[in-house]
């Protein structure tokens, strides 16, 4: 019999409150398909609302990345990262946009948030399990965090939506933050 894998599902709200209700439809299928499902909630105010019932093989983990994103030095740390320079290159030469203050701040904020989410996942879940699948419905900082995890942990499977975006195709190689920012 094939070994059932574990799933890490990044959400913004689920299982708290009423948002992301489409996940409720999939819960019974996920429960039957995976040995264990870790709902990793990155929502900031989710815990103040009603929690929906989840199957026994689900664990709900709350991200503590919001505490870290308040620290300005974490934003500045990314100014010196290779990822920032890759994004700056893509902004200028691929998208042919000028590097305005707002665009640079958007890139740095996304890198900071994604790095903090990645760190929070690593602190709460044992990433040594090679049968782990990591998934997000959202193409935002969650998806970038998944791409960062993929660079470090090559033995997992990573899924993010919208296969037409460059970082979902080459997730272990490169991703583009600027694709997911508003046209600033």
Q: How would you explain this protein's 3D organization?
A:
This protein has helices at 22-33, 65-69, 72-77, 82-94, 101-124, 141-152, 166-169, and strands at 6-11, 36-41, 58-62, 132-136, 157-159. With 184 residues, the chain is of the alpha/beta class. A five-stranded parallel sheet has the order 3-2-1-4-5, with helices on one face. The longest helix is centred in the middle third of the chain and has 24 residues, at 101-124. The model is unreliable at 162-184 (pLDDT under 50).
In short:
Helices cover 41% and strands 14% of the residues.
Question: Topology, pairings included?
Answer:
Elements: E1 6-11, H1 22-33, E2 36-41, E3 58-62, H2 65-69, H3 72-77, H4 82-94, H5 101-124, E4 132-136, H6 141-152, E5 157-159, H7 166-169
Parallel strand pairs: 1-2, 1-4, 2-3, 4-5
Features:
alpha/beta; Rossmann fold; five-stranded parallel β-sheet
Tell me the distance between the termini. 52 Å
What overall form do the CA principal axes indicate? Answer: globular
The count of strands amounts to 5
Numbering strands along the chain, what is their spatial order in the largest sheet? 3-2-1-4-5
- In which range does the helix fraction lie? 40-55%
Parts with pLDDT < 50 across at least 5 consecutive residues: 162-184
């Amino acid at each position: 019999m094939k070994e059932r894998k574990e799933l890490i599902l990044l959400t913004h709200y689920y299982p708290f409150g009423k948002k992301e209700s489409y996940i409720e439809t999939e819960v019974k299928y996920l429960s039957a398909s995976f040995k264990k499902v870790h709902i990793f909630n990155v929502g900031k105010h989710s815990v103040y609302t009603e929690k929906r019932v989840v199957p026994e093989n689900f664990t709900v983990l709350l991200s503590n990345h919001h505490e870290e994103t308040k620290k300005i030095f974490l934003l500045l740390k990314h100014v010196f990262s290779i990822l920032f320079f890759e994004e700056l290159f893509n902004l200028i030469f691929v998208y042919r946009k000028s590097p305005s203050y707002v665009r640079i701040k958007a890139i740095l904020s996304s890198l900071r948030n994604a790095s903090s989410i990645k760190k929070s996942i690593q602190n709460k879940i044992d990433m040594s399990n090679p049968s782990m699948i990591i998934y997000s419905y959202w193409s935002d900082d969650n998806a970038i965090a998944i791409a960062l995890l993929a660079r470090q942990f090559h033995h997992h499977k990573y899924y993010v939506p919208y296969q037409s975006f460059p970082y979902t195709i080459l997730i272990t190689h490169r991703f583009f933050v600027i694709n997911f920012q508003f046209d600033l």
